[in-house]
């Protein structure tokens, strides 16, 4: 895992979403200058604020704080949660289909 800081991750994700600091700030209820201070790492957000930022930017809190380098999109996480709610037998069918598709895709990339 890379050692990328919260501020750098916040900046990266915000810019990838093509959002200004002011836009993000309005969505979480703070002035855009506060977002800038987080990005420059002059201050650290509370856990509540970091959670709100992750939700607004549609990334996992784990990614934003650097616990993982895998950027999970919100719609993918939502689908995983939906799968987890299925009956065990239905879950096994979904995983079997997914496994078959992933294997086929990997084989095609090798050829």
UniProtKB/TrEMBL annotation:
SUPFAM superfamilies: lambda repressor-like DNA-binding domains. The keyword Transport does not apply. InterPro entries: Cro/C1-type_HTH (IPR001387), Lambda_DNA-bd_dom_sf (IPR010982), RstR (IPR049639). The keyword DNA-binding applies. It holds the Pfam family HTH_3. Keywords: DNA-binding. Residues 10-64 form the HTH cro/C1-type domain. It comes from the Bacteria. This is Helix-turn-helix domain-containing protein. It comes from Chryseobacterium oryctis.
């Amino acid at each position: 895992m890379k050692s990328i800081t919260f501020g750098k991750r916040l900046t990266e994700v915000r810019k990838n979403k093509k959002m200004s600091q002011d836009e993000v700030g309005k969505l979480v209820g703070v002035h855009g200058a506060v977002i800038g201070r987080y990005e420059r790492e002059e201050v650290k957000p509370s856990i509540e604020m970091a959670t709100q930022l992750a939700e607004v930017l549609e990334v996992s809190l784990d990614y934003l704080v650097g616990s993982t380098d895998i950027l999970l999109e919100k719609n993918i996480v939502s689908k995983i949660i939906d799968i987890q709610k299925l009956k065990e037998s239905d879950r096994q069918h979904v995983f079997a289909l997914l496994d078959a598709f992933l294997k086929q895709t990997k084989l095609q990339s090798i050829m």
